[in-house]
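Quick one, tokens below:
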């Protein structure tokens, strides 16, 4: 019988809660248990798992592409319809002149080339990022997605990184994938969470941590992904802020990680966080 691949996303509404650190610890926990594991860094605008485990992103294994609009001046009648319909204000047009496309604001949504009555907007494929594959140790791989700076929309890039990861997982008969998402609740986070079996929400016992936890829980409910809470630096704030939310939402606080000098030491040396995650739980 084909074994079931487990897909866990490590996420959190707020940045700076130790989400990536926990993702590395969790991946290493599965590796210690002799599971075949992939850690997939989906924080494509600012990936840092490779730094935490002291790997270099050298030769990309795949390029990430997106589609952007390109004006065909021969066909354009300067009607202004495209600029009117672009919700991102990525098309600037002075009446009577050709529209100008501002790539930094464009999400590649395709509305403009669909509304243009004269088929004057072509679709141009452009490279927007790269995917890297590193072997961490036996049966433990790291996959990292990195996008070019200044992109308006990185959700589709995350989906491409996930697709690459799932194909690789199937080839290598992997048991568990840990997806490390960006912070927040925007499109790249939704792309990372979608289709996962479990979300580990890393938060901290502060008013800001509690506020952002409520937001990410709402999103996870909508996406119908089962969730558990991890409180990082649990001995440094007011834990009741988080337990009240957990109780109200009937969600388990799975782990509490106290402030740990041991983790800091590994972190500052850029070494693989080679600590048994259950050992540092209260
Ligand atoms: S909708 Fe088409 S024809 Fe009209 S301004 Fe835009 S590109 Fe030109
Ligand atoms: S693809 Fe979408 S975001 Fe980009 S210019 Fe066209 S309408 Fe605007």
């Amino acid at each position: 019988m084909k074994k079931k691949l487990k897909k866990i996303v490590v996420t959190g509404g707020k940045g700076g809660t130790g989400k990536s650190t926990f993702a590395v610890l969790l991946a290493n926990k599965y590796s210690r248990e002799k599971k075949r594991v992939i850690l997939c860094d989906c924080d494509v605008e600012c990936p840092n798992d490779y730094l935490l485990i002291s790997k270099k992103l050298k030769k990309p294994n795949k390029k990430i592409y997106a589609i952007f609009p390109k004006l065909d001046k021969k066909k354009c009648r300067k009607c202004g319809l495209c600029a009117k319909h672009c919700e991102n204000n990525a098309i600037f047009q002075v009446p009577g002149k050709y529209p100008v496309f501002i790539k930094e604001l464009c999400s590649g949504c395709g509305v403009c080339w669909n509304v243009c009555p004269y088929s004057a907007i072509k679709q141009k494929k452009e490279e927007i990022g790269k995917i890297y594959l590193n072997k961490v140790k036996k049966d433990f791989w790291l996959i990292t997605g990195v996008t070019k700076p200044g992109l308006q929309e990185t959700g589709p890039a995350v989906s491409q990184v996930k697709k690459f990861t799932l194909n690789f997982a199937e080839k290598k008969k992997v048991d568990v994938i840990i997806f490390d998402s960006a912070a927040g609740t925007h499109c790249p986070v939704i792309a990372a969470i979608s289709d996962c079996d479990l979300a580990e929400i890393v938060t901290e016992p502060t008013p800001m941590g509690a506020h952002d936890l409520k937001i990410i829980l709402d999103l996870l409910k909508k996406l119908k992904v089962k969730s558990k809470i991890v409180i990082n630096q649990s001995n440094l704030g007011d834990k009741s802020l988080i337990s009240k939310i957990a109780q109200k939402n009937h969600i388990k606080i799975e782990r509490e990680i106290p402030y740990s000098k041991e983790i800091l030491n590994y972190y500052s040396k850029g070494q693989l966080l080679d600590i048994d995650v259950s050992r540092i739980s209260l």
